[in-house]
Write a structure and sequence with these properties.
Number of domains of chain A: 2
Oligomer: heterodimer
Largest sheet of chain A: 7 strands, mixed
Number of domains of chain B: 1
Shape of chain B: globular
Helix content of chain A: 25-40%
Order of helices and strands of chain B: HHHHHEEEHHHHHHHHHH
Number of helices of chain B: 15
């Protein structure tokens, strides 16, 4: 037998050393992973197996002031498609037939970047029953297609108050940047306009989460934990359904009527009905739209029809988003500025000859009534809307240092947002010397502020622009003895348990700064307008008294815009009503009858307490 | 040698260590199969039985007599490998199987043992003298056909195991360090050529390199690795509990590999550091007892066989466990006694049997 060489046994010891070293290295690494980093890997393992699935919260309802729902929820079926099935042409053709949409439209939905890339794509919302039944029956042909139930909006009163309630749309990527929408996921339905937008955070509620254990192929195995969704709160509007319906009908009928007469271009307008304390009872904008087209996502065709250039832009809420020259309805501001600056407003009598020459014959200006109103004091001037009288006040104000008339306009709420709880409200414009210079910066010969600018402003013409709501707010201020309240369309927010979680209280945003005597003079002028003045035909035969002011705005290149602002009853005002009809002609002929119709309907039929 | 004499000379520690590893394997396999048919465990139990029988047979057989069969073993091995290359079932893109009855044989597993046996015989003739350069050349010539045929399958892992066993035996046989250095250089050069001239399949290369950056291919080769590391790491000290590993039970560790190449990850996840250390300690006992057998061998043949078997095992442990914890490339090398697979189980028990035979006949 061989004698084993001792040096060979040494070699075996080297082998033993190598083996031990290897085992030790493996142990060290194990210790690193399992002893030191275990928590991190435990977290990763949980992330692997636990998927968080959001559960939508039912959105709150929108009710009128009496609790009648304007916006409800209803359950609808949504068809979704797994993104990895998006290349299957046959499947898409089948879907296209069943859902009655083109393959191109389906592709558009699949390509939508509005959804998390790994989540199923929404192909169609609110799918009709027959399509649902067909897909269920032929589920083998529709692998990757899922039917999901979701709550969508329903409008029991159709188009009624659509500009106030607004509509929903998918959250866009751009909106997601906004912190207001940070808690949403891409593709969620959020309020886009109206109170749906302003009160979105209260209506939306908060989503629940389901923690689902899945395996490696993302197949759900069981629900580990569930955070229930918290439903949204209901909104109770200040809007009165009946008043809203009256206002919308009066506006639509009035415009149709006007169109048939001399003013063929009359096609748009707005009505605001509110209390002197700012509670909006009706807010109508014409033309209107059907919010139902937005349910389940608006189609490209509908969207184009609603927004294309040359349309009447029915989505615009003209009461807060359009500004018009206030014309003679502005004369109450001129009167107030006259009182404030002590330009002998109450003691002054101006003799109107139809041609006002206060700035010299070279700059003579016409009163609307070319035949002249004769001698008029402020009350008489308001009654017949005498331009000469207000030219005169305007010119006196011009001669004082500063911009007295503009200052008074701003103090009475013009040129700034009223602060109503609706989105996209605009400020309008009170023209000042500084504004004019900036506006005409490329037009040097028109940069100077002339006396005629102030004189024009005094009758609400020139460059001044106001929204119908601003005019309503102004006349509400008169009705409320000089106090301006913030207008609002929401009365209260009600939680799921029926408890009010927020009540919107009247909020004072400004004061006219007039004495009651001065206000009384203005009120008397306004009272006479409907009795013996410019609107006496429109308001003849009513069993209550109406105070108001006509306005006929000249707009370059267009027919006159018709305005009427009123409050009633004159002695204890309950309602303020303002109507503006674009290209509707005269305030007395077109706008005043609409206001009368509304006031008559709401005041005469009012049940006695 | 009488039976009584034999039984007095059985190395029980060696058997206990291998049975301990088998037990760990069954624990993990049961957990994987629980809820399913459990066929994996039953099949593995059959193989263990076959393995133990083979072990006993090898132990009773006088290994010095096996030495006379060296030439036959050598050519049988080559024949098997050729058969596989010419007509083998393919699994995961590699031809590795031949069917014998209902069982799939993986001849390359036995190649490891056959190469060790024939090499031991060859090197034993040098009787511990310093090897000449000619001897080294002969060794290379001797093993090249087997390695080449394994690489053609392609089964890179087994080829590497064979190389490691040969290297360990050369070390034990007394190759001087200059020779080992030259061999190491040649191996590196070969590796360089293989990579430089794209002799490896794309997937092999990416599996080899992915452990350096598992995020590079997180859904491909990196996926198994990432999930394996998460599984082991999440096990912590005490493990997620038997039958409670989410990584392995919910298929994050892919079902195709979790019972074979990645079974250590299942143990690490469910039994934690404690389970992992038990496995390593069992290997420590196995390897140290095997080395003791080699040291006590009454001849060079037994000693070199012991050295070869130890080198084979320790290399497989290093690469397999190292792979599951992200410090070694991904190559399809099973963990001895633990990974699911009949051929591997049978071969490893045969190796234990050989060691037992050497040990029992250590007295001259």
């Amino acid at each position: 037998m061989d004698e084993i060489n001792e040096s060979i046994k040494g070699r075996l010891r080297i082998l033993a050393f190598i083996a031990t070293a290897i085992l030790f290295i493996l142990f060290s690494r194990l210790w690193m992973l399992q002893g030191v980093l275990a928590e991190e890997y435990r977290r990763q393992a949980d992330n692997n197996r636990i998927r968080e699935v959001a559960i939508d919260a039912p959105r709150g309802l929108i009710l009128d002031r009496e609790g009648e729902p304007l916006v409800k929820n209803r359950l609808a079926v949504v068809v979704t498609l797994e993104p990895e099935r998006g290349e299957d042409k046959q499947l898409k053709r089948r879907l296209s037939r069943v859902l009655k949409m083109s393959v191109a439209e389906i592709d558009e939905q699949i390509a939508s970047t509005r959804v998390d890339p790994i989540k199923p794509r929404v192909i169609q919302r609110d799918v009709d029953e027959r399509a649902v039944a067909f897909i269920k029956e032929h589920s083998g042909d529709f692998s990757g297609v899922a039917l999901k139930i979701e709550a969508i909006r329903e409008y029991p009163h159709k188009t009624l108050a659509s500009h106030v309630v607004g509509y929903l749309g998918e959250l866009s990527e751009q909106e997601r940047e906004d912190s207001e929408f940070a808690r949403y996921d891409l593709g969620d339905m959020v309020g886009k306009t109206g109170v749906e937008r302003t009160y979105d955070n209260l209506l939306a509620g908060s989503k629940g989460t389901e923690f689902i254990e899945v395996n490696a192929t993302a197949e759900p195995l069981r629900v580990i934990d569930r955070k229930t969704p918290h439903p949204g709160n209901d909104l109770v509007l200040t809007i009165d359904l009946r008043t809203q319906a009256i206002a919308e009908k009066a506006l639509a009928d009035g415009i149709e009527r006007t169109k048939k007469k001399k003013y063929r271009n009359a096609s748009a307008g707005a009505v605001v009905v509110m209390t002197p304390q700012g509670e909006v009872l009706a807010l109508a904008s014409y033309p209107t739209y059907d919010p139902t087209v937005f349910v389940g996502g608006v189609s490209q065709k509908d969207w184009t029809a609603l927004t294309r250039e040359g349309s009447d832009y029915p989505l615009n809420n003209r009461a807060v988003m359009s500004a018009y020259p206030p014309a003679s309805t502005f004369k109450v501001v001129t009167a107030a500025a006259g009182f404030q600056n002590d330009v002998k407003t109450s003691g002054t009598t101006v003799v109107c000859t139809g041609l006002w020459t206060g700035m010299g014959t070279k700059w003579a200006k016409r009163c609307w009534d070319w035949s002249g109103h004769g001698p008029r004091n402020i009350i008489g001037a308001l009654e017949v809307s005498c331009d000469s009288f207000f030219y005169d006040i305007g010119y006196r104000l011009y001669k004082l240092p500063g911009e007295r008339l503009q200052d008074q306009s701003l103090q009475m709420g013009l040129g700034s947002k009223t602060g109503i709880d609706l989105p996209s409200e605009i400020e309008g414009r009170v023209p000042t010397a500084k504004w004019k210079k900036e506006w005409n910066r490329n037009n040097p010969e028109n940069q100077a502020w002339f006396p005629g600018d102030t004189v024009n402003l005094a009758i609400g013409q020139g460059d001044i622009l106001t929204t119908p709501l601003q005019i309503a707010s102004l006349y509400a201020g008169i009705a409320a003895d000089g106090t301006i309240y913030r207008p609002h369309v929401v009365k209260s927010v009600v939680g799921l348990d029926g408890r009010e979680i927020r009540e919107i209280e009247p909020e004072i945003t400004g004061e006219f700064g007039l004495t009651q005597t001065e206000l009384g003079i203005i009120k008397e002028g306004l009272r006479r307008v409907s009795a013996t003045g410019t609107a006496k035909e429109a308001f003849a035969g009513l069993d209550f008294k109406v105070s108001g002011k006509t306005g006929t705005a000249e707009v370059f290149g267009k027919d006159d815009f018709a305005l009427f602002a009123a409050y009633a009853p004159s002695d204890a005002p309950e309602y303020v009503v303002v109507t503006v009809i674009e290209e509707g002609g005269s305030g007395s002929g077109t706008a005043a009858p609409i206001v009368r119709e509304i006031l008559e309907a709401i005041l005469s039929d009012e049940p006695a307490d | 040698m009488s039976h009584r004499e034999f039984f007095r000379n059985v190395d029980l520690t060696l058997i206990a260590a291998s049975l301990g590893l088998v037990a760990m394997s069954l624990v993990a396999l049961y957990s994987i199969a629980a809820g399913a048919d459990g066929g994996g465990v039953t099949k593995q139990l059959i193989w263990i039985g076959v393995g133990l029988a083979a072990m006993a047979f090898m132990a009773f057989t006088d290994y010095t007599r096996v030495r006379h069969l060296t030439l036959i073993i050598y050519f049988v091995n080559i024949a098997f490998l050729l058969a596989i290359v010419l007509s083998g079932d393919t699994a995961l893109g590699a031809q590795r199987w031949i069917m014998i009855g209902p069982f799939r044989f993986q001849p390359s597993e036995f190649t490891k043992l056959f190469v060790i046996m024939t090499m031991a015989s060859f090197l034993a003739e040098r009787k511990g003298q310093t090897l000449s350069w000619r001897d080294v050349g002969l060794v290379l010539a001797y093993v090249s056909p087997s390695i080449a045929l394994i690489l053609v399958q392609p089964d890179l892992g087994t080829a590497l195991v064979v190389c490691a066993a040969v290297a360990g035996m050369l070390l034990a046989a007394g190759a001087d360090y200059k020779q080992l250095g030259v061999l190491a250089f040649l191996a590196s050069a070969a590796g360089w050529i293989v990579i430089r001239f794209h002799l490896l399949k794309e997937y092999q290369l990416s599996r080899l390199s992915v452990f350096m950056d598992p995020d590079r291919d997180p859904l491909g080769s990196g996926y198994n690795l990432k999930q394996s590391i998460i599984a082991i790491g999440s096990g912590g000290i005490f493990g997620r509990g038997w039958l409670s590993g989410t990584q392995s039970r919910l298929d994050f560790l892919p079902p195709s590999v979790r019972h074979t190449d990645f079974i250590f990850a299942v143990i690490g996840e469910e039994l934690g550091l404690i389970g992992g250390v038990v496995v390593l300690v069992l290997f420590f006992f196995l390897v140290s007892r095997a080395l003791r057998v080699a040291q006590l061998s009454r001849n060079y043949y037994g000693l070199l066989m012991g050295a070869g078997i130890v080198s084979m095992w320790i290399f497989q442990v290093l690469v397999n466990v190292g792979m599951t914890i992200g410090i070694m490339p991904i190559t399809g090398i099973p963990l001895p006694f633990v990974s699911y697979g009949g051929s591997s189980m049978l071969m490893n028990f045969m190796a234990v049997g050989m060691l037992l035979s050497v040990y029992a006949r250590r007295w001259r």
